Amino acid sequence: NENVRKSELTREKQRLLWAARTIMRNKKLRTVFCGILIFLLVFALFCLGDYGIRYYHTPIKKDYDYTGTGMLVSLTEPDTFEQVPVEIHGKTLHYLWGNQEDAIAGNVWMNGERLFVEGADDMGFYAPFIYEEPYYSCLTESVTNIPGNMFLISRDLKTVFCGVLMDGKEFLLIIPAENKSDADRTLKSGLEQSQPLSRWLSDYPLFL
């Protein structure tokens, strides 16, 4: 009996010792796991903070390209018009946190010639999108002696109006337009949706 009791005590001690070791091992695993979790959380917060700071003042840029045709219509002789090849290349600017207005910057090529800038820099226009204009960008005008003197683009980036000065005569470039009927419909819609365009064209009563 004495030997039996000693054997049972030995087994009990071994069980308790194993249980204690198991508890210690689990505590260490929990400590390691918590440490890894805290590290990952701190790292994620750091990355989020860096991302937020980086894009607070720096917009997310995406390429914008259009190749097609437009209708060049005289502002003083509305019956004078011409279909022309057009390209638009630029970048849309999206401010992730909404601290500044989204915008588009770029240039327009008509008949292979840039309208809004002379020189190496292709970014000739900058058109912000503001809350007060639900359908179009702000109307931007150029005061320099270059062919392009006005730019306006729809928020969906599908419709563009450009003021063009050539040989002392003023024109409106309507994009896109496969024919004069297309151009007239696009212009009618633009006038209904953009007050700045209506005001700009009010200087040309024969056109309206």
What report would you give on this structure?
There is one protein chain. 37% of the residues lie in helices and 31% in strands. The chain has three helices and nine strands; from the N terminus they run αβββββββββαα. A hairpin with an 8-residue loop joins strand 2 and strand 3. The longest helix has 56 residues, at 2-57. It is rod-shaped and about 125 Å long. The protein starts with a helix and ends in a 7-residue tail after the last helix.
Which key phrases capture this entry?
208 residues; alpha+beta; 9-stranded antiparallel beta sheet; 3 helices; rod-shaped
Q: How many DSSP H or I helices?
A: 3
Give average pLDDT, whole number: 86
Calculate the terminal CA-CA distance, rounded to whole Å: 118 Å
Identify the quaternary structure here: single chain
The parts where pLDDT drops under 50 for at least 5 residues are: none
Shape: rod-shaped
Rg to the nearest angstrom? 34 Å
Our estimate of the beta-strand percent is 25-35%
Structural class of the helices, strands and pairings?
Answer: alpha+beta
Give the % helix.
25-40%
**Order of helical and strand elements:** HEEEEEEEEEHH
